[in-house]
Write a structure and sequence with these properties.
about 270 residues; ABC transporter permease
């Protein structure tokens, strides 16, 4: 089977497994609606903290509330999409410990699709909805000087940002195979990463900004393109075209995550349980 055939098979397996979990979650519709609403409210507490902060200050790192709301909305929405699609990857360590990961290896479906779709949870739509609402308000209130390029940049940021976070989920899962666990390490880069990106780069030291730009390029989720969108200088010198480099960064991150995943599978040793 070629690469395209494997991709089609993986997407088909993912779709079937995810649909099974969706049907399961929709059995009790009232419970599902309450869970989604609760998820929306809980994730919104992060933005409430930002609002409380701005009740005491006018700017943070030189950025106004609508500008930070733009960072927040982009980060949370992009992460929410990746979390909806691959959020179950962080429980891979538990599967390895209890031996159930071996079951996935012998099934006639790509392992990545099985792990990614496992316990697919529509309740995570609450995070996406909340982030999108904040983003919509920020786009209207941030005083952006709109051009066709900037209009196009908004959906490009969201799609590319989700792809970058998805690559981090996959790479983190590969590390869990090697370490036999380390879900906390993965969460530090996924959940920790989205929290970091909710604040402007000007409040962090330049060494951290360089690391998030060049080593683990989460900055291309929102920091770099949002600086262009708002007409702000980025804390470290970058060419203007890098504002549109998010799709390229996402593609490179995806390719590297794929290599890491394959390497993790090759190195896997069953627990024997």
């Amino acid at each position: 089977m070629g690469e395209r055939g494997a991709l089609r098979e993986g997407l088909r397996a993912y779709r079937l497994i995810a649909a099974m979990w969706v049907r399961s979650s929709m059995t009790y519709r009232t419970s599902f609606a309450v869970t989604v609403l609760g998820n929306l409210l809980v994730t919104g507490l992060d933005f409430v903290a930002i609002l409380l902060m701005f009740s005491q200050v006018d700017t943070l790192g030189g950025w106004s509330l609508p500008e930070i709301a733009l960072l927040y909305g982009l980060s949370v929405t992009a992460f929410g999409i990746a979390d909806l699609v691959l959020g179950s990857m962080d429980v891979l360590g538990g599967r390895i410990r209890d031996g159930s990961f071996d079951t996935l290896l012998v099934r006639p479906a790509p392992v990545l699709a099985q792990v990614g779709a496992d316990h697919f949870a529509l309740r995570r739509l609450g995070r996406i909805t909340q982030g999108a609402l904040v983003l919509a308000w920020a786009l209207v209130s941030a005083g952006i000087d709109w051009t066709p390029a900037k209009v196009l940049l908004v959906p490009v940021m969201l799609i590319s940002g989700a792809a970058i976070f998805a690559a981090v989920f996959v790479a983190g899962a590969a590390f869990q195979i090697l370490a036999q666990d380390a879900a906390e390490v993965q969460n530090a880069f996924t959940y920790g990463g989205t929290t970091l990106l909710q604040y402007p780069p000007t409040v962090f030291g330049k060494d951290l900004v360089r690391g998030v730009t060049f080593m683990l390029p989460l900055a291309f989720v929102n920091w770099v393109p949002a600086a262009y969108l708002l007409g702000r200088p980025y804390p470290i010198d970058l060419p203007e075209w890098t504002a549109f480099a998010s799709p390229l960064v996402a593609a490179v991150c995806g390719a590297l995550a794929g290599l890491a995943w394959r390497a993790g599978l090759r190195s896997y040793r069953s627990t024997g349980s």
